[in-house]
């Protein structure tokens, strides 16, 4: 082995210092997994199956090709590229060794969905399972509160409790609302605070966003509704928004977007009521000293014609 290459490999390992070290008992785990092929996996073994098929570096489920170093430490394609031909675990040169045995193990497995504890009872071949989990309706939702960098995920009841207790979000019951927004200096659009209100209507939950931002170079205000559930359920509803004052009025009618769509995605595609700041000032009396906007809204359920 070229001494120079070995030295550079050792240096590269320092950049992987924050990653979890690969379990050296992997071989024993492989043997235990193969024993279960064709059988139902006991719940106590499912965690070990997922662990075996996760890249020990990035902790993501692996797709072929699986790679390994000469000492048997596995890693995924992306982490192999990032390792610059140096095993992050034992510092030896990686080479281009495929872990074909583990690929065949994965291909032979049928495993429950990762979101089993949230209500999904599907059992799928490993590679189909990975694709299913990306769209599984039981996968947790992200917190819909856009005004903070919140990493909380969970089902709808969990998020409702989280929004109420941690974000102190206003909770209302009913399918009509009158939302009031007051800002002392309407010219400071960039520093406006996002506002969020949750409505319980038809036994479902909706979140009303109202915020200010720059659309290109134009300062605007925007209001839009999101549905706390799946997209196919959101399409069962319609909503309307109205804002006005001093002889002027804007109205909007639309379909609420599922919180599966990020707040930024909905805002950037402008799927909501947009009010230019100049018009918002007219709604508030035209003096520009204080902004007072009232957004009146209604949510209703579309009736099937079939």
Automatic annotation (TrEMBL):
What are the record keywords, sorted?
A: Metal-binding, Transferase, Ubl conjugation pathway, Zinc, Zinc-finger
Looking at the UniProt record for this protein, which Gene Ontology cellular component terms does it annotate, in alphabetical order?
Answer: cytoplasm
Q: What is its EC number?
A: 2.3.2.27
The family line of this record is: Belongs to the SINA (Seven in absentia) family.
Top EC class of this enzyme: transferase
RING-type domain sequence ranges:
55-91
Q: What is this protein called?
A: RING-type E3 ubiquitin transferase
- Do you know which PROSITE patterns this protein is assigned to? ZF_RING_2, ZF_SIAH
Task: Outline the extent of the SIAH-type domain.
Answer: 108-168
Biological processes per GO annotation: ubiquitin-dependent protein catabolic process
Q: Which InterPro entries match?
A: 7-in-absentia-prot_TRAF-dom, E3_ubiquitin-ligase_SINA, Sina-like_RING, TRAF-like, Znf_RING, Znf_RING/FYVE/PHD, Znf_SIAH
Reactions catalysed, semicolon-separated, are:
S-ubiquitinyl-[E2 ubiquitin-conjugating enzyme]-L-cysteine + [acceptor protein]-L-lysine = [E2 ubiquitin-conjugating enzyme]-L-cysteine + N(6)-ubiquitinyl-[acceptor protein]-L-lysine
Q: Where does this protein act, in terms of pathway?
A: Protein modification; protein ubiquitination
GO molecular function list = ubiquitin protein ligase activity; zinc ion binding
Q: Which domain of life is it from?
A: Eukaryota
